[in-house]
Every structure is written in structure tokens, then in C-alpha cells.
Specification:
Strand order of the largest sheet: 1-2
Largest sheet: 2 strands, antiparallel
Helix content: over 70%
Number of domains: 1
Oligomer: single chain
Strand content: under 5%
Order of helices and strands: HHEEHHHHHHHHH
Number of strands: 2
Shape: globular
Structural class: mainly alpha
Number of helices: 11
Distance between the termini: 34 Å
């Protein structure tokens, strides 16, 4: 019965995404425009160069496509839904429901991720046809490990997003928190620049943080840049962070609800 309740929440989240499809499509279009801009930028950087930091131009094209897929999953649309519950006070209704708040938000996030993932895959399929030289997931084992890593990256990102959203209990606006979280995540996950391009000291720091599990891990696995043992180790690190972030989020929620104050109420 417990799982059935959260499954129903996931379905409702999918329906809400379709109901507010204009907002969803505009957000998705913004990510797509960002992809085109990054493609043009890296095309100019690679002009006359065979490779940079171990990446050939075809690999970088594939990197950009996979990064777009990973970043499109659990977008701003999903994230703002969590922060808005806290900011507008509707979180009080969740306290009255026989549902685990953290699990309920995860179910809703996964529901919207299904639609985001389907649309992303369609666009990537179209772009891959017209992107000269791009090669994606060249064998079955790589595809399998990439899929596991991709699903794990969603959970890592959810953990970071959820913890950031809970900080709204101590602020009157979630926009600043969301933008700050996006800036840090995009930089340290490898979404803006592959971690291989970082100076050694910054790369070492980034590899110790959970953010690299969002983009760097699934992308390097998807491009076949790791051996199977290395890929499994990277996935194991993702799951270590998933557990740590989940427990941290659980602790923050318990702390927040004991001293909740919404609009002075």
C-alpha cells in the first residue's frame, strides 16, 4: 500500500507537468538554447585543434548531448515545486498527510523526470543525426552502465536540490537559493566545462564532492572513457553520496519542522 501511494503521486506529477505544459516547454526550450550556445562556443574553441585535455571534437559533441540529457532531468520546473511548497506555506498541508515528505517529493520528481527524459531523448536523437562525428553509447555494456549511472545521477541531484529547498525555511525567497545551487552544480558537476579541463587542485576538490556524480560520472561512462571496474567504482561513489544526502535531508527536515514559522503563523 505504501508504494502505491507514492506511485499515485508520481502519476499526478506527470499530469501536472502536462497541465502546465507551457511553463514546462519554455523551461525546456531555455535548456535547449543553452545547448546550442555551448555547441557553438566549443566548436570555436576546437577550431584547428585535434583534441583538448583528452577530448576530441566528436567526443565533445557527444559530451554536450549527454550533458543536455542529464541536466534536463529534474529541471527548474521540478525544483521550484519543492521550494514553492515551503515559501507559500502549503507545506503545512503535507504535515497533515500520512506521507513521508521526502519520499513524496522524490516520487513527484521522478514522475516529472519521465516526461523530461522522453522529450530529451527525442531531441538528442534528432540532434545526433545532424551532429557530424558525434557517437553515443557504442556497445551494450556501456549503455547498461550509463543507464544505471544516469538514474543514480538523478538521485544525487535530487538530494542536493531537496537540501537546498529546505533552506527556504530560513528565507523568504527561494529564487536566490535555486540560482546559487544551479551555479555551483553546473560548475562542479562538469556541465559547463568538463572536469578534465580544471586545474589539478580544483579537479581534486570537485571529485570529492557529490556534484561530479550528476554530470561527470554518467558522461564519462557513456563516452566509454572508463573501464568497467572504474565505471562500477564511480557508480558506487554516486550511491554513497545518495545515502549521505538522503540522511542529511532527513535530518534537516526533522530540524526544520520543529521550528517552522510561515508568515508569522
Amino acid at each position: 500500500m505504501g508504494i502505491k501511494k507514492y506511485y499515485s503521486l508520481a502519476l499526478c506529477s506527470m499530469q501536472n507537468t502536462l497541465a502546465y505544459r507551457l511553463s514546462f516547454i519554455l523551461n525546456f526550450a531555455a535548456n535547449f538554447i543553452g545547448l546550442i550556445a555551448m555547441y557553438c562556443l566549443w566548436q570555436a574553441v576546437y577550431d584547428g585543434r585535434a583534441q583538448l585535455s583528452g577530448f576530441t571534437w566528436p567526443q565533445m559533441q557527444s559530451y554536450l548531448l549527454i550533458t543536455f540529457l542529464v541536466n534536463s532531468m529534474l529541471s527548474y520546473y521540478s525544483e521550484s515545486g519543492i521550494t514553492n511548497k515551503i515559501i507559500d506555506g502549503s507545506v503545512m498541508m503535507d504535515l497533515l498527510k500520512p506521507l513521508h515528505f521526502q519520499k513524496a517529493r522524490l516520487a513527484e520528481t521522478l514522475g516529472s523526470c519521465v516526461l523530461e527524459g522522453i522529450l530529451s531523448c527525442v531531441l538528442i536523437g534528432v540532434l545526433a543525426v545532424f551532429t557530424v562525428g558525434a557517437s553515443l553509447l557504442q556497445d551494450g555494456l556501456t549503455s547498461f552502465l550509463f543507464l544505471i549511472s544516469l538514474l543514480s545521477s538523478i538521485l544525487v541531484k535530487f538530494g542536493i536540490v531537496y537540501i537546498t529547498a529546505l533552506l527556504c525555511f530560513w528565507t523568504m525567497s527561494g529564487i536566490g537559493l535555486i540560482w546559487a545551487r544551479m551555479a555551483v552544480t553546473n560548475l562542479l558537476s562538469g556541465a559547463l566545462v568538463p572536469l578534465a579541463f580544471f586545474p589539478p587542485w580544483l579537479k581534486s576538490i570537485a571529485m570529492l564532492l557529490p556534484f561530479q556524480g550528476i554530470v561527470n560520472t554518467p558522461v564519462t561512462i557513456g563516452l566509454g572513457m572508463t573501464e568497467m571496474i572504474q565505471a562500477l567504482q564511480l557508480i558506487a561513489i554516486q550511491w554513497i553520496w545518495i545515502i549521505i544526502l538522503w540522511l542529511l535531508g532527513k535530518w534537516m527536515w526533522s530540524w526544520a519542522v520543529r521550528q517552522i514559522t510561515i508568515h508569522g503563523g
